[in-house]
Design goal:
By secondary structure, this protein is of the alpha/beta class. The protein contains ten helices and eleven strands. The longest helix is centred in the last third of the chain and has 17 residues.
């Protein structure tokens, strides 16, 4: 009898066909769990592997890998976006530029949030902002209990939330992702963010990666064929989804992801996001073992 595989994915154009059964595999029985917002699924998967397959932010996965959690990364991007719109200030209070950020108080949901990693990494690399000179105010801890935020961060009082704190004028700027408010008074700190994103893309040749997919090592050990089949379904969903004009946001395969992962690791190390050094080869060692030739 086919074992039902538990899986948590957000509904995107490229994952919805899997969730509705429009794309499927007769050898698999998939039971989907809905969690909104999807980032609430990451900590339970990273800490206890509460499901067999789960969408996961890339920084959460890297922390899990660094702490030797039994999960394996599938080389398929399911969420990516340009990031320069995500750092905002209120133009009626203080119109900031990147040069003004040292000494300013900037809110971010969690220091380990992947969107925050990208924004800080780009600010440091492209605008010369010394990350440890910004006053980072966080509202949640990391998805991995072992991780402790750097000394140049501080936690907001219990019960406070990022967006209301920003709207109340208690922050000079804030990093927001899917919860970006639609308010003309809130403007990006980086001027002409779309042009900045395009320039970044032209240098690095990929869209900043937010979420990929992981599987538990227990599933991979018991049923590696199921893992390969799940990966094929994810790729099929990506390859057959309607394509929007512009850069490819959803690369698949280790070869396509090698360069992006190198940059992500560099950004993470510079921001004190990892407890130990990781390499791309270490990240994908288990992936290659399970997926074999399909991993490339």
């Amino acid at each position: 009898m086919t074992k039902t595989i538990s899986i948590t994915l957000k509904s995107y154009p490229h994952t919805t066909p899997l969730k509705t059964g429009a794309i499927g595999d007769p050898a698999l029985s998939l039971a989907f769990t809905e969690i909104e917002p999807i980032h609430r699924a990451f900590a339970p998967m990273a800490r206890t592997q509460n499901v067999d397959v789960c969408e996961m932010a890339i920084v959460t996965y890297l922390l899990a890998k660094a702490y030797d959690k039994p999960i394996i990364l599938l080389p398929a991007v399911v969420a990516a976006r340009f990031q320069m719109n995500c750092l905002i200030a209120n133009k009626n209070r203080r119109l900031l530029t990147p040069a003004d950020l040292p000494g300013a108080t900037v809110g971010v949901r969690a220091y380990t949030q992947t969107t925050g990693m990208w924004v800080r990494g780009i600010l440091a690399a492209d605008h010369g902002v010394p990350i440890d000179k910004v006053h980072w105010l966080t509202f949640e801890g990391a998805h991995l209990a072992e991780y402790h935020d750097p000394s140049f961060t501080r936690r907001a009082p219990a019960g406070e939330k990022l967006l209301p704190t920003f709207e109340a004028g208690k922050l000079d700027a804030a990093i927001l992702g899917n919860d970006l408010p639609d308010d003309p008074d809130y403007v990006p700190v980086v001027e002409h963010p779309e042009a900045a994103d395009l320039a970044w893309y032209n240098r690095h040749h990929f869209v900043p990666i937010n979420h990929m997919v992981v599987v538990s090592k227990a599933l991979a050990a018991k049923n590696p064929d199921a893992v390969r089949r799940i990966y094929r379904l994810i790729r099929q969903g990506i390859e057959t989804a309607p394509k929007k004009p512009g850069p490819d946001k959803f690369p698949c395969g280790i070869e396509a992801l090698h360069g992006p992962m190198e940059l992500i690791l560099d950004y993470c190390e510079r921001q004190q996001l990892l407890p130990r050094k990781l390499t791309v080869d270490e990240i994908f060692a288990d992936t290659r073992q399970v997926l074999k030739d399909e991993a490339e």
